[in-house]
Each structure stands twice: as C-alpha cells, then as structure tokens.
Amino acid sequence: MGVGKSTVGQLLAERLGVGYRDTDEDIVAAEGRAIADIFVAEGEAEFRAVEKRSVRAALAEHEGVLALGGGAILDAETRGLLVGRTVVYLSMDVEEAVKRTGLNAARPLLAINPRKQWRELMEARRHLYEEVATVVVATDGRTPEEVTQAALDALELKEA
Ligand SMILES: Nc1ncnc2c1ncn2[C@@H]1O[C@H](COP(=O)(O)OP(=O)(O)OP(=O)(O)O)[C@@H](O)[C@H]1O
Ligand SMILES: O=C(O)C1=C[C@@H](O)[C@@H](O)[C@H](O)C1
Ligand SMILES: [Mg+2]
C-alpha cells in the first residue's frame, strides 16, 4: 500500500507506450463506492472475491501495465492468474511506508496503528509477493522516475 504502484505503473506504461489500468480503480468504478466502504459493509473475504473477478477481467481485456491492489496476492486463485505473467514487486521499508501512507483512513488495513499493522501485513505477505514476482524493485530513496528506470532495467525492457 502506497509503494507507488499507481505512480510508477503510469510512468512505466508511458515509457513502454502501452496502456495503464488499476484493479482498485476498476472495483470502485464497478461498485460505485470506495474500497474502504466495501471492506466495512461486506468484509475482507467478499472484497477479495470481488478483487479476484476484477483481476481476471483486467488480465483478459487489457494489454499493458496493470496495477493490482496490495492484498490481491493473498488469494491463491488470484496468484494463479499471475503465473506466466511479468510481475514487478515494488518494495519499501516500514519508515518509507509510513511516510507515503500516513494515518489514512482510506487504507482500511492501516487505519489504526500503521507502523505495527504494516509490519504484520508484510510478515504475512512478503513470501507471497516474492512468489509471484518476476523481479523485485526497491523503491526506498528513489524517485518514481528512478524506480521506473530500475524496473525497466530489471526486466531488460526497451522503451517504445
Ligand atoms: N518513489 C517514490 N518516492 C516518494 N514518494 C512516492 C514514490 N512513489 C510514490 N510516492 C508517493 O507515495 C504516495 C503513494 O503512491 P501511489 O498512490 O502511487 O501508491 P500505490 O501503491 O498506488 O498506493 P495504493 O495502495 O493506495 O494503491 C503518493 O503520494 C505518491 O506521490
Ligand atoms: O493491501 C491491501 O490489502 C489493500 C490494498 C489496496 O490496494 C486496496 O486494494 C485495499 O485497501 C486493500
Ligand atoms: Mg494505487
């Protein structure tokens, strides 16, 4: 959350001359309400089911850069959808995470004690991010442009 998926995803798409899409945005548009509202009204399990359908549809329809929600990899079937795809895992440390997300109620899983919750989330998730990743790109101390260049270098991709 807040690692720069949207910022870097859009820069990467521009540099590659392809489109950009974001499953969190797809869900908000399709449901007509904020993600935090879906979490509160339906719970996380239902959100993950909606998210899985959204990832499946986006992968089928979209050619280009796709940003997933930060927790999409928690679902085994969603991870399965990523097999054979080029996946960039953007990483950061906890201090960078707190700087970027702050105390923001729009991120339901970090709303109460962001530093502690972030550490716990990462302990549970890090191996899943690494499992699906083709490359890992550290974002700490790098500008979005530098992160984008590092992703292009790691993937050995040429610009359009
Ligand atoms: N490399 C970077 N260095 C410093 N700040 C950054 C960097 N990348 C993104 N940011 C800032 O961090 C915040 C979160 O970025 P962004 O919205 O792109 O992240 P995200 O991963 O898409 O977040 P979300 O989990 O909300 O989808 C924004 O304020 C953005 O400007
Ligand atoms: O990491 C997560 O679990 C989440 C990340 C966001 O992208 C949203 O999909 C939602 O806030 C949940
Ligand atoms: Mg985003």
Poorly predicted tracts of residues = none
Shape: globular
Strand percent estimate: 5-15%
How many extended strands?
4
Q: What kind of sheet is the major sheet?
A: 2 strands, parallel
Tally the structural domains: 1
Small molecules (ligands, ions, cofactors) in the structure: adenosine-5'-triphosphate, (3R,4S,5R)-3,4,5-trihydroxycyclohex-1-ENE-1-carboxylic acid, magnesium ion
Helix count, DSSP H or I runs of 4 or more residues: 8
Keywords: Amino-acid biosynthesis, Aromatic amino acid biosynthesis, ATP-binding, Cytoplasm, Kinase, Magnesium, Metal-binding, Nucleotide-binding, Transferase
Binding site for ATP: 2-7, 107, 142
Subunit structure: Monomer.
Binding site for substrate: 24, 48, 70, 125
Structure description:
There is one protein chain. By secondary structure, the protein is mainly alpha-helical. It has a single domain, classed as P-loop containing nucleotide triphosphate hydrolases (Rossmann fold), CATH 3.40.50. The chain has helices spanning 5-16, 23-31, 35-42, 44-61, 76-81, 94-101, 114-132, 144-155, and strands spanning 19-22, 64-67, 88-91, 135-138. The strands form two sheets. A two-stranded parallel sheet has the order 1-2.
